[in-house]
């Protein structure tokens, strides 16, 4: 059994910071021991990694990605191969992607299609949520089977009428089912029916530029949908996870629900923490690069998101990685913002951007690891296999240099997309080495992984509610 020792680093988990060496054996963490102790000195190993002056952190868990997802007449530009490779470059060793039920189709059919897309192609481990695009008697029954098979979370949309949208009755039924089978409902909370009216009115008035995407998707319509989702979950007796929260009023709805003791959880994404409507308003058609839903908000909303992350009103930061090239994809919406495919690239940038938040004093180092590794693993039934460094855990470990400087650019990133949403941003901190189940994937800034190393992860149910 191959043995690796990572020595000299500061091990950071969601709960502790310890100056310890880490012994990895057969793909798992075997032991931790303080530097210089007899225990650490007695370890023999095939490989030794010097982490002196570096952080030793769990591999990131990105609980919201869309590789190869069909959307708006095109498909997200990263395949499972390119997207998971980029994830590894950025210190993320687990992704949870979304399999999609087609309208009129079964959950089984959608899930099998996504198994086939990912199988043999991933550089790091992966799991699936299921998008419910057609809630009916038969798909409701199938939810039970998926939970027993390890697909334990289901995304519903209050937005995108005619595509993924579910009405309140369908939502209530799906929540009731999840309440009974242990599944977790993930909600895209925007009032899509009202938004579509505003879209039609904006286009009729000649307001066609990307910035109007942000205008019509009102804060009030995110807050209203969030409130409604909370009340429906409360009636159903089911837990609720609100995805890609962007507006201060939506954070307030989640905080109020949690204050009442309801099992309501929230996720935000780096784009809402670091970008704003200023980006959507960039001249020419540049704003199209920043079109996603929920939309970017005015800068003033960011403080509520940071506060929410510090106070545990929001538990998780995922990327909602859904990349579309500017050339040929985002351009589909020239002259009509509603035709711009929704989504931003970011799977490679999340760990670094959140470390930058540590540098800038928004969050502590342990909170960084909590929101990026431990909490997503617990939320989606993968802890402590993923999300921590402890005996028995998978040896998904990142050696992170907290002092290295870098500048984000599409010229140097590894995502299969022709722009970066963070072009030119200076960051302190950089991934140096990444192990996935003890196997090097990034070795001192060189990719040494392979497509097919990544394994499928059946998941347990949400560990925040049991
Ligand atoms: O704009 C986004 N978020 N695109 C991906 C689909 C979704 O709603 O998460
Ligand atoms: Zn969504
Ligand atoms: Zn998404």
Automatic annotation (TrEMBL):
Pfam families: Amidohydro_1. Its EC number is 3.5.2.2. GO terms for cellular component: cytosol. Residues 55-433 form the Amidohydrolase-related domain. Carbamylation allows a single lysine to coordinate two divalent metal cations. Its cofactor is Zn(2+). It comes from the Bacteria. The modification N6-carboxylysine is found at residue 155. CDD domains: D-HYD (cd01314). GO terms for molecular function: dihydropyrimidinase activity; metal ion binding. It is an enzyme of class 3 (hydrolase). The keyword tRNA processing does not apply. Keywords: Hydrolase, Metal-binding. Belongs to the metallo-dependent hydrolases superfamily. Hydantoinase/dihydropyrimidinase family. This is D-hydantoinase.
